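Encoded backbone
================
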Amino acid sequence: MMKKEKLKEVGIIGGLVGSQVTYAGNSEVLSHVLSLGVDPLLVAIFCTFVSFLLISPLAFLLEREVWPRSLSFKLKTKLVLVALVGVTLFQWLFFEGMKHTSASMATAMPNLAPAFIFVIAWATGMEKVKLSCMYSRVKMGGTVLCVMGALIMSLMHSSTATSSSLKALPIVPDDVALDKEKILGCLCLFLSICCLSSSLVLQASILVEFPAPVSMFSVVTLIGGFTTVALQYVVKGSMDMGSASVIGLKNLVGYAVLGGLVSGGGLTFNAWVIKRKGPVVVSLFSPIATVVCVVFSAFSMDDSFNSGSFAGMALMFGGLYFVLWAKGKEECGEGDEVKEDEEENLLRREFDLEKPLLR
């Protein structure tokens, strides 16, 4: 029995590491596709519709029995908002950001999401914060560290220097300039994570009325596909397929299928792990994708990370783990408080002074 449990633990850890490595590889391929000149919105449209086609059969097989008979106007509005913000705007900004920066930056930025979710949930009243509680203060401090790390990493990654200033002191020399394109890319990535965090908070409220996460994701991707097409017309004025000729329409469809399989498989496996181990365990492995991308970039020489970028990354990861640690401890504390209250109520019922001794 113990060996079986250990094998399951090893399988979970190996699966989480493998999913992050696969995600990093997919990010590198996507970065290469975008660098060739393929329109980010076109990639988003193909990936969104392919994801819908791949996930819909799973939703029908696994969750059709729990589908609600009718959808309220409020729920429909929430689904459209999640599709617009969490699918269309997130993918557009994320792909634009990756196009102007690198896969390493793109895989590092999503680690801001837990801190942003905490802030949004706090602002909307879904998360209670007590300044007298140590764990609340740690979460706030971790959020500040995450944002500071992201800003430092973005600024240092966006700086370009001549060979004479590479070994200079931390003081910024005159011949170091900021790459405006990379600053724009970092800003797009930052805004995309804001969109992602907002949509995740909204999804939590949707699942209360619509307790079918795979089905919800399927509906959201379908709506998101059409809203992304609408955005393409707003931004470009037409459904321009010209950029697909750079790699060929067949190759673009092939990548969309690959991206759909990676994202769909990763979401399914993460959901399985979350059900057994909780969301904190899954989040702890998220920096692996960034490390893999940085190592790959170092060997391929496609991207250069200086010491300042690594310092910002370390600060952001440190803030992430502070937030996750405090959240985990807080949830354990809430469970202990509930248990203590139940025990106290039981004792009160058993030893009630007004209760007659003889019946």
